[in-house]
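Hypothesis: this fold can be encoded by more than one sequence.
Test: take the structure tokens below, design a sequence, compare later.
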């Protein structure tokens, strides 16, 4: 049995589930844990392993390609749909390193989290909870909004966006969607949903939920100008990538009361915090984030929307199958291949 899988600390249950499935099927697997970033000395411990396994909490730099090449690593297995945490594709291709991702894993998990965030903000649950913990049972400032007569805007109708549309449609009056590549046949299956242009979505949505990948075109999609186009008292939900929202502009929108509430399962600069206990350090050097967490109409969570038992099972199984496909012991899912 040779060296097969080197797992770079996922800081979650994936460490155990990945190790279990590979070892159960006769592959040698090592988990490197307990460090920040991806130190060079840790990466060099992967020498001789066929594959590196990486999750969203870690990022490989362009300069790491030479180390991977020297290690003899032949593939990077991303345990996520996104792959903005790997080196440039041309560098990897030149080094003969293949990359696979998990195109989808329980999109319902993230859709349900987005919808629960909509309700938490619309019903002032966080503010009420914080008050009653202090034995303050006054209801001034706790009036809620009714959702059944509201319009929800969904930006991005990939698998997660579609699930969000389908689940929320029965709870609200109307769902309006934007996607660069609209699924026109699918949208007809949801009676109160339709595609609109982006400006129409901004102008007419009471709640906006973001479900697009981080691309050059989507970076800072939510900014001062687009917030200005939105309805007053809009609620914004982001479970996709933090960099899609310009954080200082978001803070300004909240302080001006243009925005009623925000739920962020992802945020700019989250790699410094992701899956770590930062309670002793706090938010020093991150003033906008400190502003956000001080507001009782803002919900910030630690990239956990995906984190259900079903998601872990699917990520584990699909990553294992990607490995089998790359080593010629199974079929290669072309949708999973990045490089």
């Amino acid at each position: 049995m040779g060296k097969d899988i080197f797992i770079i600390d996922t800081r979650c249950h994936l460490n155990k589930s990945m190790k279990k499935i590979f070892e159960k099927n006769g592959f040698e697997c090592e988990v490197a844990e307990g460090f920040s970033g991806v130190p060079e000395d840790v990466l060099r411990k992967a020498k001789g392993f066929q594959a590196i396994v990486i999750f969203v909490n870690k990022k490989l730099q362009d300069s790491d390609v030479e180390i991977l090449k020297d290690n003899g690593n032949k593939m990077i297995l991303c345990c996520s749909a996104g792959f903005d945490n790997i080196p440039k594709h041309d560098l990897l291709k030149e080094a003969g390193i293949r990359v696979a991702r998990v195109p989808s894993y329980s999109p319902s998990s993230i859709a349900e989290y987005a919808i629960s965030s909509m309700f938490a903000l619309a019903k002032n649950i966080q503010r009420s909870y914080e008050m009653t913990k202090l034995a303050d049972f006054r209801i001034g400032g706790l009036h809620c909004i009714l959702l059944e007569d509201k319009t929800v805007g969904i930006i991005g109708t990939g698998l997660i966006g579609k699930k969000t549309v389908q689940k929320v449609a029965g709870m609200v009056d109307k769902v309006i969607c934007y996607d660069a590549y609209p699924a026109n046949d699918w949208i007809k299956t949801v009676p109160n949903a339709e595609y609109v242009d982006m400006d129409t979505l901004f102008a007419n949505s009471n709640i906006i939920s973001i479900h697009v990948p981080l691309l050059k075109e989507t970076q800072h999609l939510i900014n001062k100008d687009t917030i200005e186009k939105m309805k007053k008292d809009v609620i914004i939900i982001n479970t996709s990538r933090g960099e899609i929202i310009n954080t200082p502009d978001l803070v300004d929108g909240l302080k001006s009361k243009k925005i009623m509430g925000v739920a962020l399962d992802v945020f700019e600069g989250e790699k410094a915090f992701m899956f770590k206990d930062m309670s002793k350090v706090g938010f020093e050097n991150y003033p906008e984030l400190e502003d956000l967490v001080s507001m009782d109409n803002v919900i910030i969570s630690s990239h956990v929307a995906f984190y259900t038992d079903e998601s872990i099972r699917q990520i584990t199984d699909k990553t294992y199958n990607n490995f089998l496909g790359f080593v010629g012991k199974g079929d290669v899912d072309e949708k999973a291949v990045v490089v």
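The chain has two domains: 3-105+308-327, 107-300. The CA atoms of residues 129 and 135 lie 10 Å apart.
Hypothesis status: open.
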